[in-house]
Amino acid sequence: MTFPKNFLWGGATAANQCEGAWDVDGKGDSINDHNRAGSRTAGTRRTFDLTIDTENYYYPSHTGIDFYHHYKEDIALFAEMGFKVYRLSIAWTRIFPNGDEETPNEAGLQFYDDVFDELAKYGIEPLVTISHFELPFHLGKKYDGFLDKRTIGFYERYATTLFERYKNKVKYWLTFNEINFGTMEHGLRISGLFNREYTETEQYQALHNVFLASAKAVSAGHKINPDFQIGCMLAYITMYPKTCRPEDVLKTQQINDKFNYFCGDVQVKGKYPYFMKRYFEKNNINVEITEEDQQILQAGTVDYYTFSYYMTTCIADDLDQRDDKSGGNLFGGVSNEYLPSSDWGWQIDPIGLRYTLNQIYSRYEVPLMVVENGLGAFDEVAADGSISDDYRIDYFKQHIIEMDKAIEDGVDLIGYTPWGCIDLISAGTGEMSKRYGFIYVDRDDEGNGTLARSRKKSFYWYKQVIESNGENLSN
Question: Which range is the signal sequence, renumbered to this chain (predicted)?
Answer without folding.
Answer: none
